[in-house]
Amino acid sequence: MVVKSFCCAVLLLIMSGCSQHSSIKKSENNTKINAPTAELAYAQGLLLSQYNDWRGTPHKWGGMSKKGVDCSGLVKLTFEQQFSLSLPRTTAGQVKVGHSIKRQQLRTGDLVFFKTGVNVRHVGIMVDELQFFHASSSRGVSLSRLDNPYWKSHYWQSRRVNLK
């Protein structure tokens, strides 16, 4: 797993080095934003490796295995397996971890939370500024976009956990 994660991270770094994009991006108000650091690229490689290992695993309330996993279980397992960090088991506990960030500040590794029902909360992990992976009740472990109308309308809040 470690070798696979390392190879994935190295491949991502090589690919980003061959990119034709500028290393400096401009935000909406035309201020400069530094491109992702090597740490974020490495974290992204780990997250994509985890996603690929779990992709398609069915959703199961309370599940924490390849036979079935729920959203908070997937987040807990991912942070333990990829970053050696222990997060709470439930979405209610995870929403208290780290510090709150604005939607516009989202980046790789951030937790994104949604209100999908009256008392139902959902969590996913950002793999970049737009995409997150999660355990969907209808599609199992999958990759979704934050600008999808469903997720955009149910967005609740975001949290940043120190990955070091």
Report what the structure shows.
By secondary structure, this protein is of the alpha+beta class. It has one domain: endopeptidase fold (from Nostoc punctiforme). The chain is 34% helix and 26% strand. The protein is built from 5 helices and 10 strands. It has helices at 2-17, 38-54, 71-83, 91-94, 149-154, and strands at residues 24-26, 32-34, 64-65, 68-69, 99-101, 111-115, 121-126, 131-136, 140-145, 155-160. Strands 5-10-6-7-8-9 form a 6-stranded antiparallel beta sheet. A two-stranded antiparallel sheet has the order 1-2. A hairpin with a 2-residue loop joins strand 3 and strand 4 (68-69). Helix 1 packs across helix 2 and helix 2 (38-54) packs across helix 3. The longest helix is centred in the first third of the chain and has 17 residues, at 38-54. It is globular, with a radius of gyration of 16 Å. The chain starts with a helix and ends with a strand. The relative contact order is 0.15. Mean pLDDT is 84; it is low at 5-33.
